[in-house]
C-alpha cells in the first residue's frame, strides 16, 4: 500500500538497531495525533463528553477532521460506544471498529488493532480512546460483590478468590509481590523506589495530578497499609479523564501537522494458565509470562533490543509489577530489578528513564492510554520532562492481565 | 449407599441412563394375595361391598399393596426409581410429594396369586420453581405381573422431589454472606464437598491429572470424564496478603488470604485463620478447616498445622 516495506524499513530508525527482524506491523502505521482532557478527581462531566473532547483534541493535534476518521477502537470496559462517540464528534461512516479486552491490558492493544486495520486497508484513519470517571464514578479499587455474578468463565474464575475477600486489584497484586520478595529477598523499599521516581517525574509535569508534590522513601514507608506488602503509595491514584490517539499510515502521517510516532512494533500477549490478576496456579508467581510473550514479539519483529530503547513507559498501577516488567522486557536479569533500581537508573537522568510523565502513580490513571501519549511526546520532543535523543520508546499495558506493548520510533 | 451430589446436567444424564434400562423386574411379593389383608383394606377404606370376599378376589386398587416392601423389608433395593431418588436426595432435593397416580386394571386378582412388580423410569423434568420449592418431577410406570407373566395392573406415578422453600426462607432471615461464589456443573462438586467437610481436587478419570481450579475438559488428554479425590487437608503457605483497606463486605479487617500449595500437586486460595497475623509466614504448614458463612456457603480455610 506504500513504498515502505513490510518489515520495518520504513520506520527510518536512523541506524539505531536493525529494523525488521520478522513478521509484524513493521512501521507501516504511525500515531499522528494525541489528545486528552485534564486529569482530575471529579471531572463534573459525563464519560461520553470526556471521550468526545479527547477525540476532537487528538484530531486537531493531527490536523485532521472528524470526517477523515473511518475506524474506532476502545476497551471493552469503556462505557462509551464507538457509535456514540462518532455521533458526538461528527465522525461519519466507519469501516472498522473493535474493542480490546482485559482491563488496562487493552491500552497498547487499541493501537495494535488500529495499526492492523491501517496496514490491511480496513481503515485509513483510526481513533483509539479511553474515557472514564474512574475516581468520581465507579472506582475499580472498590470491592464489588458482583464480581462473581453469573457463572461465566470470568465469574467462575473470580469465585476461587472473591469469597475469601481477595477482591481488590491491590490485594491481587500483593499476592505476587509477597512471593517475589520471598524468592529474591526484595523489600518494600525496593517497590518504594518506583513510587518515589514516578512522583519525582510528576512533580515537574504540569499536566500531572501530583505536579509539584514529590515524595520521599520515608513517606512511602510511612504510608498506611492497603494490602500487605503494599503501602498506599505503592498503589496508583484514581482519576477522571480521557485520552485519544489517531493512527494512520506512516506515509500519510508524514504529511500531517506533527511529526509521526512510527509504530515499529506492536503486540498483544496472553500466557499459558492465564487468569485476570490471579494467575496464582502457574510457574513460581515471580514472573509475568504474558509480558514475556509481548516482549519477545516486540524485539523479534522490530529487530531492536533493550539497548535501543531510550525510555520506557511501563504500566504502573502498582509498583511491584514495574520490577517484574524490567525483568520480562530484558532490561535486567531475573530477580535483578531491585539492584537495577537502586542507583536511580529509572529516573530522568538515569540509564533507562521510566515514565518521564510520572506514570499512573504520578500523572493520572487513564488505564495506560496517557502513557502512550507520553511516548508520542517524547518522540516528538514536546514532553514536559523531555529526554534527549529519543528514537525508540517502549510502551507496555496492564500487568497481571492479558496485555500488550508497542515500540514507537522517530522518523 | 452414599451418592455424590450431581449438577442439573448430571441428574438428567443419570435419568436418561436409567430410562434406557427399560422395565426392571422387582422382587416378587412376600405374601400371596390373601383374605386377611383384603379384609383390613376394606375396613380401612370403609368399603362394605361383600362381593370381593364372596368371590375370592382383591379390590383392583390394592394392586400396590401386594408388593410393598414393608417397614423392615429390603426398602433400598436397587431400582431405577430408587437410584434416581437417591441422587436427588444427595443433590439437595430431599422433599417429596406425589403429584400424579393413574392406575389401569387388566383383571381382578384372586386369593392365592403371587404378583411381581416391574418398574420403568419414563421422565425427569426440571429443575422447576414450585410453591414448595425448586425441584424435579420424576415419572415412572409400574406394572404388576402374575405367575404366567401376564400384566394384571399398571400405574403411572409422578413425584415432585424438591428443595424445601422453607430452607431458602430461613437463609434470607439469617444474614447472608455477601461474597457468594458463582457455581456451575463444572465446579459444583467442590462446593458440595466443602459442605461435607471434604476438600475435593478435580482428577481426570482417564489420565489422572490433578487440577485446581477445575474445568470441564482435561487440558492434558481432552477427557471430559471428571472425577475428584479428597485432599489430605495438609498444605504449605506459598504466598499471602494481609488485607487492610478498603473494607470488604462480610469481613472484618485485617484478614489474611493465602495461596496454599497442596501435597496433591495443586495450589488453592483460602483464608489463613487461627493464627496471629505477625506469625503468618511463607512456608508454614497448614491444615484445612471449614467455616460456615451462612446457610448456603461453607468455605475452606487454613489453620496452622503440623510440619
SSE blueprint and pairings:
The complex is a heterodimer of chains A (411) and B (307).
Chain A: E1 29-36, H1 47-62, E2 71-75, H2 82-89, E3 96-100, H3 107-120, E4 125-133, H4 153-158, H5 169-184, H6 188-203, H7 217-222, E5 225-228, E6 230-231, E7 240-249, H8 250-253, E8 261-269, H9 289-302, E9 311-313, H10 320-328, H11 337-342, H12 359-362, H13 369-380, E10 392-396, E11 403-409
Chain B: H1 8-20, E1 24-25, H2 35-45, H3 51-55, H4 80-90, E2 95-105, E3 116-130, E4 133-145, E5 151-164, H5 165-173, H6 188-195, E6 200-204, E7 210-211, E8 226-230, E9 234-243, E10 255-261, E11 267-272, E12 285-292, E13 298-304
Antiparallel strand pairs in B: 1-3, 2-5, 3-4, 4-5, 6-7, 6-8, 9-10, 9-12, 10-11, 12-13
What features would you describe in this structure?
The complex is a heterodimer of chains A (411) and B (307). Chain A has 13 helices and 11 strands. Chain A has 411 residues and is of the alpha/beta class. Chain A has a single domain, classed as Peroxisomal Thiolase, Chain A, domain 1 (3-Layer(aba) Sandwich), CATH 3.40.47. In chain A, strand 2, helix 2 and strand 3 form a beta-alpha-beta unit. The N terminus of chain A is likely disordered. Chain B has 2 domains: 162 residues, Thiol Ester Dehydrase, Chain A; 131 residues, OB fold (Dihydrolipoamide Acetyltransferase, E2P) (Beta Barrel). Chain B has 6 helices and 13 strands. In chain B, strand 12 and strand 13 form a beta hairpin. In chain B, helix 1 runs antiparallel to helix 4. The interface between A and B is large, with 40 and 40 residues.
The CATH topology name of the largest domain in chain B reads Thiol Ester Dehydrase, Chain A
Question: Numbering strands along the chain, what is their spatial order in the largest sheet of chain A?
Answer: 3-2-4-7-1-8-11-10-9
Question: Rg of chain A to the nearest angstrom?
Answer: 20 Å
CATH class of chain A: Alpha Beta
State the order of secondary-structure elements of chain B, H for helix, E for strand. Answer: HEHHHEEEEHHEEEEEEEE
Characterize the largest beta sheet of chain A: strand count, sense, and whether it forms a barrel.
9 strands, mixed
| Domain count of chain B | 2
Amino acid at each position: 500500500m506504500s513504498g515502505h516495506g513490510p518489515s520495518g524499513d520504513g520506520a527510518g530508525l536512523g541506524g539505531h538497531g536493525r529494523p525488521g527482524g520478522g513478521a509484524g506491523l513493521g512501521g507501516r502505521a504511525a500515531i499522528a495525533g494525541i489528545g486528552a482532557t485534564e486529569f482530575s478527581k471529579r471531572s463534573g462531566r459525563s464519560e461520553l463528553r470526556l471521550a468526545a473532547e479527547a477525540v476532537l483534541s487528538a484530531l486537531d493535534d493531527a490536523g485532521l477532521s472528524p470526517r477523515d476518521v473511518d475506524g474506532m477502537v476502545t476497551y471493552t470496559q469503556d462505557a462509551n460506544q464507538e457509535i456514540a462517540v462518532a455521533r458526538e464528534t461528527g465522525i461519519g461512516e466507519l469501516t472498522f471498529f473493535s474493542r480490546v479486552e482485559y482491563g488496562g491490558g487493552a491500552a497498547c492493544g487499541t493501537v495494535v488493532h488500529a495499526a492492523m486495520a491501517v496496514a490491511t486497508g480496513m481503515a485509513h484513519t483510526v481513533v483509539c480512546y479511553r474515557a472514564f470517571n474512574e475516581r468520581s464514578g465507579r472506582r475499580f479499587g472498590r470491592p464489588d460483590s458482583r464480581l462473581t455474578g453469573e457463572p461465566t468463565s470470568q465469574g467462575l474464575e473470580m469465585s476461587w478468590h472473591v469469597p475469601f475477600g481477595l477482591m481488590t486489584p491491590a490485594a491481587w497484586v500483593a499476592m505476587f509481590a509477597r512471593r517475589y520478595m520471598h524468592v529474591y529477598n526484595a523489600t518494600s523499599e525496593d517497590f518504594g523506589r518506583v513510587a518515589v521516581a514516578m512522583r519525582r517525574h510528576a512533580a515537574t509535569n504540569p499536566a500531572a495530578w501530583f505536579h509539584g508534590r514529590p515524595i520521599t522513601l520515608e513517606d512511602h514507608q510511612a504510608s498506611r497499609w492497603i494490602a500487605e506488602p503494599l503501602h498506599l503509595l505503592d498503589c496508583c491514584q484514581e482519576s477522571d479523564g480521557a485520552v485519544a490517539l489517531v493512527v494512520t499510515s506512516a506515509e500519510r502521517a508524514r504529511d500531517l501537522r506533527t511529526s509521526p510516532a512510527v509504530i515499529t512494533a506492536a503486540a498483544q500477549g496472553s500466557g499459558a494458565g492465564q487468569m485476570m490478576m490471579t494467575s496464582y496456579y502457574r510457574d513460581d508467581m515471580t514472573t509475568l509470562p504474558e509480558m514475556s510473550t509481548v516482549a519477545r514479539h516486540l524485539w523479534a519483529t522490530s529487530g531492536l533490543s533493550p539497548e535501543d530503547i531510550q525510555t520506557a513507559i511501563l504500566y504502573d498501577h502498582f509498583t511491584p509489577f514495574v520490577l517484574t516488567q524490567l525483568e520480562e522486557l530484558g532490561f535486567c536479569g531475573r530477580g535483578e530489578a531491585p539492584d537495577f533500581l537502586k542507583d536511580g537508573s529509572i529516573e530522568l537522568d538515569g540509564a533507562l528513564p521510566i515514565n518521564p510523565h510520572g506514570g499512573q502513580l504520578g500523572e493520572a490513571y487513564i488505564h495506560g492510554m496517557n502513557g502512550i501519549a507520553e511516548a508520542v511526546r517524547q518522540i516528538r520532543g514536546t514532553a514536559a520532562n523531555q529526554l534527549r535523543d529519543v528514537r525508540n520508546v517502549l510502551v507496555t499495558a496492564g500487568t497481571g492481565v492479558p496485555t500488550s506493548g508497542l515500540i514507537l520510533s522517530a522518523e | 449407599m452414599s451418592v455424590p451430589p450431581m449438577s442439573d446436567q448430571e441428574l438428567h444424564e443419570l435419568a436418561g441412563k436409567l430410562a434406557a434400562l427399560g422395565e426392571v423386574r422387582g422382587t416378587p411379593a412376600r405374601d400371596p394375595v390373601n383374605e386377611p389383608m383384603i379384609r383390613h383394606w376394606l375396613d380401612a377404606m370403609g368399603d362394605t361391598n361383600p362381593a370381593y370376599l364372596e368371590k375370592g378376589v382383591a379390590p383392583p386398587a390394592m394392586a400396590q399393596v401386594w408388593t410393598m416392601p414393608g417397614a423392615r423389608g429390603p426398602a433400598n433395593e436397587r431400582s431405577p426409581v430408587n437410584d434416581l431418588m437417591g441422587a436427588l436426595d444427595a443433590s439437595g432435593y430431599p422433599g417429596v410429594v406425589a403429584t400424579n397416580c393413574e392406575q389401569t386394571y387388566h383383571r381382578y386378582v384372586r386369593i392365592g396369586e403371587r404378583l411381581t412388580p416391574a418398574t420403568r423410569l419414563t421422565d425427569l423434568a426440571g429443575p422447576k420453581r414450585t410453591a414448595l420449592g425448586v425441584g424435579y418431577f420424576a415419572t415412572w410406570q409400574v406394572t404388576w405381573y402374575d405367575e404366567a407373566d401376564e400384566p394384571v395392573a399398571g400405574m403411572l406415578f409422578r413425584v415432585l422431589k424438591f428443595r424445601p422453600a422453607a430452607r431458602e426462607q430461613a437463609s434470607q432471615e439469617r444474614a447472608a454472606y455477601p461474597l457468594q461464589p458463582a457455581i456451575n456443573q463444572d465446579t459444583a462438586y467442590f462446593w458440595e464437598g466443602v459442605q461435607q467437610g471434604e476438600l475435593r481436587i478435580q482428577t481426570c478419570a482417564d489420565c489422572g491429572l490433578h487440577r485446581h481450579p477445575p474445568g470441564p475438559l482435561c487440558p492434558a488428554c481432552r477427557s471430559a470424564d471428571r472425577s475428584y479425590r479428597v485432599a489430605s487437608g495438609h498444605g504449605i503457605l506459598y504466598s499471602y496478603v494481609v488485607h487492610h483497606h478498603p473494607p470488604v463486605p462480610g469481613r472484618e479487617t485485617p484478614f489474611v488470604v493465602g495461596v496454599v500449595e497442596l501435597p496433591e500437586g495443586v495450589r488453592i486460595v483460602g483464608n489463613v485463620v487461627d493464627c496471629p497475623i505477625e506469625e503468618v509466614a511463607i512456608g508454614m504448614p497448614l491444615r484445612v478447616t471449614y467455616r460456615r458463612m451462612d446457610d448456603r456457603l461453607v468455605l475452606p480455610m487454613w489453620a496452622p498445622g503440623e510440619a
